[in-house]
Amino acid sequence: MNRSVTIACTVFQTGLMFLLMNISLAEPGGVPGSLMLAKDGKTEYRVVIPKGFHPEVKAAADELVLFLEQITGAGFTIVGDDITQTKKEILLGTNVRLKQLGLKLDLKQLGPEGYVIRTVGDRLVIAGGPDRGTINGVYVFLTDYLGCRWFAPDCSVIPKKASLAIPAIDLQKTPPFEIRSVWSSALTRDRDWFVRNHLNHYTVVVQTPDRPDGTRRVNYSDFRSDPRLANAYAFTGYHWHSLGHNSDLLDPEKYFDQHPEYFSLVGGKRMRTRQHPCLTHSEVIKIVTENVKKKLRNDPRARMVDVSLGDYRKLCECSTCSAAYKKYGHSGVYVRFVNAVAAEIEKEYPRVILTTLCGYPPVEGPPLGGVALRHNLLVRSGNTTYCRYHDYEACTENVYRGRLQTLKNWIPIAPGRVMALLYQYGSGPLLPRASQYRLLRRTGVKGVYVFSEDGQTRNYYWDQTPNLRGYLHARLAWDPDFDVEKGIREFCRAYYGAAAPELISYVREINDENSYAGKATPWKELQKRPGFHSGGGFLDPIKPQKLREFDRLFDEAEKKVRDNDRKALRHVMTGRLPLQYCILMMMPKQDPIFQKAARNFLPMAERLGVKKVRNLKAESGPKMQDLTVFCRAMLAD
Question: What pLDDT band is residue 616 in, cutting at 50, 70 and 90?
Answer without folding.
Answer: confident
